[in-house]
């Protein structure tokens, strides 16, 4: 598995994080600033491998009874984002309403003609 993000100087809102949650009550976070490669079920279905360029690999096994517990522990380790101010959510909603309203008006005018 390989995923690459656009970095901090692009408009892409997502960022790649070398972290996954298993269905067996644990998560794995690879603490590495460079490229991290995961081999999921490559040689054996029940195995996951991780590799990095260099001589050391630092990783954390994070346990929990539920995925939410694992995420809570993961964000306690790596940090939690702050909630943006409420006004910042208005633009998305207003833009969505505007675009929906315009397309609805366009569909109505086409239907009438």
Properties at a glance:
single chain; 113 residues; alpha+beta; 3-stranded antiparallel sheet; 5 strands
> Roughly how much helix do the residues carry, as a percent range?
25-40%
Number of strands: 5
Strand order of the largest sheet: 1-2-5
| Number of separate domains | 2
Please tell me the overall pLDDT: 77
Distance between the termini: 51 Å
Radius of gyration: 21 Å
Secondary-structure element order, as H and E?
Answer: EEEEEHH
Percent of residues in beta strands?
15-25%
Q: Give unreliable regions as ranges.
A: none
Largest sheet: 3 strands, antiparallel
- By DSSP (H or I, 4+ residues per run), the number of helices equals 2
Shape field: extended
Structural class by secondary-structure content: alpha+beta
Model description:
The chain is α+β, with helices and mostly antiparallel strands. The protein folds into 2 domains: 1-81, no CATH class; 85-113. Helices cover 34% and strands 20% of the residues. It contains 2 helices and 5 strands, in the order E-E-E-E-E-H-H. The protein has helices at residues 67-78, 87-112, and strands spanning 19-21, 26-30, 36-40, 48-52, 59-63. Strands 1-2-5 form a 3-stranded antiparallel β-sheet. A two-stranded antiparallel sheet has the order 3-4. The mean pLDDT is 77.
């Amino acid at each position: 598995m390989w995923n690459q993000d656009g970095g901090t100087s692009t408009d892409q809102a997502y960022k790649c994080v070398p972290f996954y949650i298993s269905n067996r009550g644990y998560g794995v976070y690879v603490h590495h600033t460079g490229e991290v490669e995961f081999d999921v079920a490559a040689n054996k279905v029940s195995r996951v491998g991780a590799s990095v360029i260099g001589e050391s690999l630092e990783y954390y096994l994070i346990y929990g009874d539920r995925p939410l517990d694992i995420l809570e522990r993961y964000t306690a380790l790596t940090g939690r984002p702050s909630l943006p101010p409420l006004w910042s959510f208005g633009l998305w909603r207003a833009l969505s309403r505007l675009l929906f309203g315009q397309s609805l008006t366009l569909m109505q005018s086409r239907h009438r003609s």
